[in-house]
């Protein structure tokens, strides 16, 4: 009546039972993790928050680069105006720089708002 898969030694049988119990315990833990909706939702929220923080960092970096480019262009325009032969009342470097900075700020705000709405 002995089966070829059944171990003859009691010690070996106990070892197989312990191994089966351990495997069953791992399976139960995996199933419990899958049914834990709260933990899964928290994990998904954490992942989403991490992606949003990364995108915000990228947007800040791009805005900083755009601000630097606008400042450089305004400085170049100011120097060109200073070196030009135009009379003093026609030269208006400050309003030109202010307009350039305002336009850049508007573009940055529009970009950030658009990114937030997509996320």
Kindly list the characteristics that best describe this protein.
119 residues; mainly alpha; 3 helices
Description:
This protein is an all-alpha fold. The protein has one domain. It is 83% helix and 0% strand. Helix 2 runs antiparallel to helix 3. The chain is rod-shaped, with a radius of gyration of 34 Å. The mean pLDDT is 82.
Strand-residue fraction?
Answer: under 5%
Q: Rounded to an integer, what's the Rg over CA atoms?
A: 34 Å
Q: What is the helical fraction, as a range of percent?
A: over 70%
Shape: rod-shaped
Multimeric organization: single chain
Largest sheet: none
> What's the pLDDT, averaged over the residues?
82
What's the quick description here?
It contains 3 helices and no strands.
Topology at a glance:
Blueprint lengths: L9 H26 L1 H47 L9 H26 L1
């Amino acid at each position: 009546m002995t089966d070829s898969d059944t171990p003859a030694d009691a010690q070996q049988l106990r070892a197989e039972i312990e191994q089966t119990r351990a495997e069953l315990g791992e399976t139960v833990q995996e199933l419990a993790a899958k049914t834990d909706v709260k933990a899964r939702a928290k994990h998904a929220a954490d992942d989403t928050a991490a992606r949003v923080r990364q995108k915000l960092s990228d947007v800040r970096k791009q805005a900083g680069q755009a601000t630097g480019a606008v400042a450089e262009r305004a400085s170049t325009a100011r120097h060109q105006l200073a070196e030009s032969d135009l009379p003093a009342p026609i030269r208006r470097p400050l309003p030109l720089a202010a307009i350039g900075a305002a336009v850049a700020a508007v573009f940055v705000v529009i970009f950030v708002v658009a990114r937030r709405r997509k996320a």
